[in-house]
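Lab notebook page, bench 4
Experiment: in silico fold of construct C2
Operator: M.H.
Input chain length: 511 residues
Purpose: comparison with the prior construct
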Amino acid sequence: MSALPTTHSLPVVAPARAGTREWLALGVLMLPVLLVSIDNTVLSFALPAISRALEPTGTGMLWIIDAYPLVLAGLLVSMGSLGDRIGRRKLLLIGAIGFCAVSIAAAFAPTTELLIAARASLGFFGAMLMPSTLSLLRSVFTDRDQRRLAIAIWASGFAAGAALGPIVGGLLIEHFWWGSVFLLAVPVLVPMLILTPLLIRESKDPNPGPIDPASILLSLAAMAPVVYGIKSLASEGITVVGVLAIVVGVTAGALFVRRQLRRPIPMLDMRLFRRASFSGAVLINLLSVVSLVGFLFFVSQHLQLVLGLSPIGSGLVLLPGLVTMIIAGLLVVPISRRVRPSIVIPVGLLISATGYGLVAFLGGDAPASVLLVAFVLLGLGIGAAETVSNELILSSAPLDKAGAASAVSETAYELGAVLGTATLGTILTASYRSAVVLPEGLTSAQQHAAGETLGGATTVADQLPSTLGAQLLESARHAFDSGVALTAGIGVALMVGAAVVALVSLRKVRG
């Protein structure tokens, strides 16, 4: 009589290893990442041209930057959950078509208000792109070693786009109008629309549950008021409107969490945050991106408007740091197999803190060479740390919830981008407004433009007699750099704080 097989005799099935098709699919999935990164970097370097053409206020300038990541961050969790339900590939294609169309509209926006509206619409469709790429990557690469390498390559798309953006964007800005930078979306996304159906299989949650409109609204209500409140408090001090906005956002966030915990099939499984590796990695990403975006907000304007470099010249100063970020993300893969994340990530973040410390020490007197070295150190640490933290986020979540987990990771990125400009950017703007000294003889319109932003002062200086224009420029540049030491010091604190979070939350995670 033959015995029934026991569970101990069942063979262990190893995850299937990726082949040529899967690695080609990775190349396709990197295109949206490349685009979003190019978009953010190009915009930073296009700010002086936008400032001269549309003459936005200081607040308007910040909203041109923030409208996109604010809407995107508010919708990422909802779109990630929607992709789990209707299909991640389908949502990716819908987002690509919409992003292309709105990018064309943004390129020809005639006013600040319409450009802000276009940027917000780009955030809506961008929210469809980002979680879909990372969650599809999880389904394509089931072997963890291969997935770790794939995530490093995928993450390098952010740095590659940031490196490519200033070069390509600089060429466009110097030879065409500022709106041409938005047209970069078309040649990047059209190949993706063609190749995605050929190389990538559809992926979705087999038991998704119904779409929950109330949760979608609560997630938006939690994000937007908090960011608005932070911007208001940073620029105007403590006001009733600013405090009330934060209270509304926090209340909506609490209601969102409560609703997710009570629903049988939640839009976002809050139990993921009980895993220290998941919640710690998300917080590390958030703090890192706040620092990175705050640095780029300052340095892109300092290089062009204070040191007088061209957009291409400014991009070349930052290029070594961005290349370092790519290389660090790839080299950390074999290291992370043997060394615990609680060691790899803190070491990387403390290297980044050293780079920020150089700027904090020199303040606005930092020459281009020091900024180059500072950004190399910043890129080295962040490139290594975020490759490991992203892999932890994906591996901590079940496969059928990959879209929602990816959305949380992307939300940390985009919320960090918003907070980077809303806090560090607003501190710089407020410092400029309080420190700039306007010479006599300006019209009311010139006073308003020169008193709001450094770009506005540069435009006004070109309209004045040489002596008066030079006087205004000297005052404006000094005023802009007056807040650099403070914001760089905050950047150091954020990097050190993220390193402490990694030490505490990831201490039990093995390499």
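Observations: The CA atoms of residues 257 and 270 lie 7 Å apart. The two ends are 46 Å apart (CA to CA).
Next step: discuss at group meeting.
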